[in-house]
């Protein structure tokens, strides 16, 4: 991947094109505003309540997905009116398509995950749409190195890594409940209930862990609980699986929680588990680490990239519930190891994934986008 080459000029007015109801879009918009940038957010989606009043919001006509095609004239009019120095479209397919149809330039196109991993697999047409959107961009931002390689597999595009950051003050170990020798030992996950996120594998691993501990440490086995936060199409299937495995009395499907409530949920966990089959990054994993919670994650692209194996947690083979169960049992039986890995996870976030660091990286990407546009090496050149 190309390294970001800093220039001395930071854009003062930026237009973001993305889903205003997404906490990720909102955090980028709010963070850039706090850095003194005049941020304009154009969206087909209604804004989340967390969006700062300092961000100028421009609602677009139509709704997704038809708006990705039909709102281009409105985007062109708004961009002409506000005159941004740079457009940053978030999500390479829907809003990336809208940015291309509106001929938004210079363009930093930020890819998030399923836009790269899943969308082009649907058909040749989907792959061509993605390739055209990527080709229109002056520069492409990827949340992870693993996904950057996926983008390169589509075409030889200029790519930089712009990871999501963690608010280490909001996600802090200070909120964690004190350890107990008699209270519940809570395993947990905060993820969408969709096949790619491997919640079924988590249930199977939890069942195996419970069975092993019932034989070796029955007093500890009785304390084990599993909490799963999130919503999705697989809820009833996963609930049925919990019944089939005989762990339904130990498993709580807690439903969707707003992002502001995630720190409180993480504070109640002893181990965070993410066994995704496919994922481009690991925001929730890093949030758990920032709270001092040890993690067990699959070796899918994104999750494995944000964990230091045997230091901040354990990386296990994807779709291997037995291996995951063994690591869960290791952590359940060793409170000192849980505390040690949790502390290392916190330091890992502070070194590499703070929100301020991610904003610095994004601003460098903005500078590089302008540099490419002005040098005549991007699609903006004649």
Automatic annotation (TrEMBL):
GO terms for molecular function: glycosyltransferase activity. Residues 183-347 form the Glycosyl transferase family domain. InterPro entries: Glyco_trans_1, Glyco_trans_4-like_N. Residues 13-144 form the Glycosyltransferase subfamily 4-like N-terminal domain. Pfam families: Glyco_trans_4_2, Glycos_transf_1. The keyword Transit peptide does not apply. Keywords: Glycosyltransferase, Transferase. Gene3D superfamilies: Glycogen Phosphorylase B (3.40.50.2000). It comes from the Bacteria. This is Glycosyl transferase. It comes from Bordetella genomosp. 7.
